[in-house]
Amino acid sequence: MRLFITAFLAGIALIGGEVGAADHAHTLGEIKSREAPVQLSSNALSKLDLSVSSRIPQAGSVKLERLELRTTATGTIRLLGLPEANTTLLNRIAGVTSGDDYVFLSLDPRLQAYTDQVVKQAKAPHVSVVVMDPRTGKILALSDKSSTIPELSLHAGFPAASLFKIITAAAALEKGTIKPLTKIFFRGGNYTLDKWNYKPSRHDKRSMTVAEALGKSVNPVFGRIALQLLSPRIIRSYTNSFGFNSSLDFDVELPTSKAHIPESDFSLSRTAAGFGDVYISPIHAAAIVSALANRGVMPRPYLVDKVVSPSGNLLYASQPSALQRIVQEKTADLLLQMMEYTTTVGTSSREFRYKNKPVLKGIPVAAKTGTLSGRNPKGINNWFVATAPLHDPQVAVSVIVVNPGGISSKASHIGRLMIQKFFE
Q: 194 and 274: one domain?
């Protein structure tokens, strides 16, 4: 994350109300304005989870990262770039504006330090790790590195790859055309999806349940689901519901994740399996798995927790808010159960099981992987998204690694480390 030298916070007039786009967001609380400040005593600060036993220090007495802020028409705060997140105040990761207002970030200091270390040690030219509280959208840790792209966690040019299978499965579940144990017949290998095997045929001798196919990321199964049970219109609708082609209203300017759903049978089958013209950012990927963990409701991801004046007045407090419902609660629950196959018998099972026993005892993990060659940055894109524990999700993780240099640098390994650290 990058350092910004200049900073300002001017004209704050934040009023309680909607935090997201007017047509689909709602706020769960009230944001106080500078015109009606809340005087923060030591006790009040403690209640605000600032972990303080003394008053806010005088301006200039603590060396903090300079941050540049602005406010939006919807009343949210915008950071002009990702912070370095390497300075603390009152046991919180924080920065300061040119007006000497203190900006407290949502990041957990312990988890952030560990994430920075893991990213630094990863043997790959491009790595991003995002850790989120799926119940609120609060970013708990965010770290990245890239040899060519600044602020990689904001980059919306990564192929969604097999993460898109989640959307295909969601659409079919909600339309009632499949259940987790529905068997789909196909032919060819697990990963082959070409003009020879994309269409249903009397030669289809292999079969697999949808749940197992999701866990093992079996491409022809999802091509079949798209052609036999869905349509371009349905898939396009669910793609948009999952946040593609629209803003996530993040605290830093975030490019929109783009998705194009084709009409032809062959292209549609490949898109449904993860080979389509669909691109996503690491933050959006974390928001998607958070939505499933949050009973189908996508939370607005946020990084700025509070802004406090030098005298201790609360100028801004983030409020957890919902962007939109992406699937019904029952569908979200079924998808998570299906995604557990990824870590038990599927593409991440070697990372999460040892001698047929779970590595994370008592912490079942729902996950999805994806692997696909990309052009920007160039190389093999290795995805891992997950939430845990399965029946009471408390953390969501998104990891993208381009050209990992060994097993210890793969996205599944890094994701497992992050989940393990969270529950320590």
A: yes
Q: Is the pTM of this model over 0.85?
A: yes
Q: What is the pLDDT of residues 34-89, one digit of tens each?
A: 222 333 334 334 444 443 324 566 555 568 999 999 988 877 789 999 999 999 99
Q: DSSP characters for 45-80?
A: HHHTT---SSPPPPTTSS--EE--EEE-TTS-EEES
321 - beta bridge partners? 27
Whichever domain contains 172, its CATH number is: 3.40.710.10
Look at residue 12 and tell me if it is in a domain: no
| Counted domains in the chain | 2
Nearest-angstrom CA–CA distance, 294 and 63: 38
Neighbours of 120 (CB within 10 A): 10
Domain encompassing residue 308: 26-105+303-319
First to last CA, the chain: 25
257 within a domain of the structure (yes/no):
yes
Same domain, 237 and 342: yes
Helix (H) or strand (E) holding 338: helix 329-344
Residues in the chain: 424
Mean pLDDT of 3-11: 31
Integer Cα distance of 344 and 48 in angstroms: 40
Would the CA dihedral through 120, 307, 318, 42 be positive or negative? Answer: positive
CA dihedral sign, ordered 76, 79, 82, 88? negative
